[in-house]
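Session log. Operator J.P. requested a structure for one protein chain; no other inputs attached. Running the standard single-chain path with C-alpha cell output.
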Amino acid sequence: MCIQKVLNLFIKDEDPREESGLWVYAKLKSLFPEAEIFISDSDNYRLCNLDNINAFLKADLTDQIKYETNRMDCDDFASRLHGQFSTPPYSDLAVGKVWTDKHALNCLIDQNGDFWFIEPQTDELLSELAGWQGDKIRFIEI
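Structure written below.
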C-alpha cells in the first residue's frame, strides 16, 4: 500500500482520545480474563476513530491477497495488517493481533472504549467472533 495514499484519506481527529498502556491492558484483561495480553508500549495509545479505520482498510490491500493454506493463511493476514498499522501516523493506535483457539485476526479499541475484531481477510469489523473464528481468546498483542 502506498502510505501517502492512505495519509490523504486519513480523517484528522479533532480531539483524539488517548489512554495509557496500563488502561489498554486493564480493558483487555476485563474483557478476556483468560487471555495472555502483551502491550508493546507503555506510553499512550490513541483510541481508534472508526471512520479513519474504515478509510484505512479500504485503501489497504491485505484483504485482496489470495489465501494459501500454510503459506498465506490467517496468521499471515493478521500479521500483515498489523504491520500496515505499525508505521506513523498509525503506530500509536490501539490496534493489534488476536489469536483464538481456531484463528488469528486483528483488533482495535475505539474512541468509545469499545473492543472490535477486524477480520483481515475481509476488512469486516466485528463486535463478536463468528463461530468459525473460535470460542476462546488465547493471546492479544497491541
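Operator note: The helical segments are 3-9, 21-31, 50-59, 74-84.
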